[in-house]
Please model this.
Amino acid sequence: MGIGDKPKFDIYIILIYLALLLIGWLTIYSAAQVSQYHGILDMDQLYGKQILWIGLAFLIISFILAMDVKFFERFGSIIYIISLLSLLGLFVFGKELNGAKSWYSLGSMTLQPSEFAKAATALAVAKFLSGINISLKNTKDLLLVGLIIALPALFIIPQPDPGSALVYGAFFFALHREGLSLWYLSLVLVAIGLFLGTLVLGTWWIALIILIAMTVIYLLSQKRRHKKRLPKPRIILFLIISGVCVLYSLSTNYIFNNLLEDRHRNRIDIVLGRVEDNQGVGYNINQSVIAVGSGGFAGKGLLEGTQTQGGFVPEQETDFIFSAIGEEWGFIGASLVIILFMSLCYRLIIMAERQKNQFARIYGYSVAGIFFIHFFVNIGMVLGLLPTVGIPLPFMSYGGSGLWGFTILLFIFVKLDGHRMSYEH
Amino acid sequence: MKRLLFFFLVTIVGLTLIGRVFYLQIIKGDSYKLKSELNAVKSIYDIPERGFIYDRDGDLMVANQVAYDIMMIPKELKKFDTLQLCTLLQMDKTRLKSKIQDAKDWSWQKGSVIVPQLTQEEFAPLQEKLRKFPGFYAQKRSLRKYMVDHSASVLGYIREVSPEKIKKDPRYQSGDLSGKAGIELQYEQELRGKKGVKHFIRDHYGRPKESYENGRYDTIPNSGLDLTVTLDNDLQAYAELLMKNKRGGIVAIEPQTGEILTLVTAPYYDPALLMGRDRSKNSVLIFNDTIKKPGVNRALQAEYAPGSPFKVINALVGLQEGVITTTEKLRCNHGYDYGGRKPLGCHSHQSPLALNTGIAESCNAYFAQVYRRIIEKGSTPEEGMDNWNRHVTSFGLGDYLGYDLPVGRAGLIPDGKYYSSRYKYKWYAPTTISNAIGQGEVITTPIQLANMTAAIANRGYFYRPHIIKAIDGEPIDNPDYTVKNYTTVDARHFEPVVEGMTAVYKTGTAKYAQIPGIEICGKTGTVENFVKIDGKRTQLTDHSVFIAFAPKDNPQIAIAVFVENGYWGSRYAAKIASLLIEKHIKGEITRKDLEKYLLTHSLEYEYEKQYSGEPFEINPKVDKGLIAPQPNALNP
Model:
């Protein structure tokens, strides 16, 4: 940082942040089931506590913005290692809440280190990839960066909190921006598609579809070869790919029935419509969809949502907060929140692209990816499009750790971006 | 391209989510609005009182008392002192935890029962303290109060509805009580009445705020209907008393109506045992006892070979088919040699003999010949057998009778096909000769025997036996129970057989069980029976059987008594039948010696034999069951 250099923090991203925070808090306030009202600072109520968490978040923001901008790149690895240790420490010192050992207990407060690990991992990935002579074309480097991403995920899965681990898939966007082939994503998508397809249609239909698809692709590639004079595609390759796909499809039922746990099976079954159980495991989703659907165009109004006020949607202050927005704010409010999140993602990419410094760009892409996955998976789940995966909606879901984790993640980038003119590698 | 991928994905996902919201809120919005309204409406149910059960004379048998269920709503649960609650509810910790988990699994919103059916006394100490546990509350319920300590098995019992039933029938909710057996189950719809419901909109504290749609959908409860059953309370109590320390079943029917006067199974239990706090403990004792089987209603469900009473039917069929006359005398040579390995034995009596003496002396040889003639009348044994089957089943044997109690057995009356598929080689009447004396393949339940006796008493027809007399004071007019079922035997053939049954009392096998002033017609039976012990077919002491009706003209009661391992029909069953007939007709017992014999004799020593692991003697010439006089308690 040159002397006298005034940082310029991006005002749009800060406005989006504040808007989401405000809507989130109002919704937590509305979703609370209060028998006696003692003002908004009532620390016995979630909305009261959330005000405290928001206040502390602002304090964290001031710290981040006041710090030396080089700190994050310099200490990226150390922060990452501390974060990994804090995840490992859970196995020994962790406190169990709702069946998962994901929290540290600090007096009456609890901290969830996995919420902070996202930012730490983003810093480590950015630092590693921006290093000299590091290339994703190099298999060793690719494996190393894969390891950096996979380690925290591997520590989080057995807590058990597979939802939070899923978020680490977000780093694909950063890697892709830095040159990782799209084929890797396609491979994952095809695998998921085949898995779900087999569950719904059965192996034989899937085999037929694979056969038709492969034939079409083969014929198309034959045509293209003539035009572009590419080497003749070998039919054997197509046969092998088809075979692998069919074998995978055949093993789907085994994976589904033996490797997944009951609750995961149930959640997938419900979204695929294979079972209907609105009183049991499907209760959450059913009530959440009713809440959103009953909101109509304009919503029932703040504090007027019968689903929300009646407490019909479990976990509504946390993972299912979007259902309260849908009910009380209607289509207008729900679309507004979705558009705010879309804007957040767009803005982050625009900001990332304007970075001259590779570290800041990779970090920016990682941040955008993480917010995108959270936004997509959380709202998709609340709307009954995706299986129940317990991850929060950034800035809106109740909880100190989540709010601070996302705030740190975002504002480190705001800080980096603010100094982009002066900040050199 | 690389930069665009992310923009592209965000746009696709964002539009998909907005599209989904649009679909849910704008396109399907109305249907979800309705669902959410139904959700937010709190329904408060008004559970009506269950109908009372009266006996035929208007004696109250079953009434109601107030009881409390401890309920819990998972959503309202706060942290609580588990230990304190466990002590309060007298429950261990794991059980409480599993109950709470079950409740959460079932519904987050709706109350689930944690401890069911506390009586007023059990609930009183809890009442104040329960307030300290948010989410827990007490729901007032009406519980059965038994005014009698007998008839448990026919009255049945009520208990919480199963989750399966709740799923199938929306009228039931967790904690509701419904009939599980006997009359309570059979007449559940009448007894339970209809719940009333009031709908309220909840305010945002979850409390009922205002009536929903001005009470448009509210209903008032209809209380359950009172039932009058055909049982005679006094007779029922007396029959159970006589069956103390014995196993078996008694059914008494009023022949002119088909009303069931008495229906007793032994061993029996106090109906109050299946109520209140200890009911699950008791129900294990009752329903999981595979040796005494007090949970089985032997009067309806026990299938025994009928033994000699069945000879009466063969006599009737013989007369109808014209293969015998009332005067033709047949020889008995201490039995009947039908060509088998060993002749069908018989005891000492005069020979040759005709129908009347044949019945009175219960002559095996006489009936073997009658049966043989019936079967051999057909051009083939199959045809003869089918014809015999047609006559016998017309007495209601070999099939469920269609009475209004939820359990029963069909018994078995074989036909030609039965034997043709059973025997590889050709078979003839002698092959099945044991059917002549009610042993062979024929099996019946006590209620079938009682009904058969009623058909004889009526000289050729019966009304389907039933337990319901009036619903809500209105006598039943169900055609199932008011239409005569005719047997295939003509009325004129009954008189000689009835005379034979009178002779059973006057000169025959039951002459010690006569009642002064009442002309009884009956038939004893001593039924051989076998069990498998360690895979070996072992004979046990014979069952004591008796059927009777009285008076001979214009009969008021037809009865079948079955006492397991009681040996001669006259030793136990005839005495019991005789006492019950006297009590029903005269209203008092004049032969205290008979009564004393039954109250001071137990058959428990017979029942223990097969479990002793040692060789044992069967059919003791002298009854060894003498015990000290028992207090008149009816508990098992």
About this structure: Chain B touches chain A at residues 2-3, 5-7, 9-11, 13-14, 16-18, 20-22, 24-26, 28-29, 31-33, 35-37, 39-40, 75, 105-109, 201-206 (CB under 8 Å).
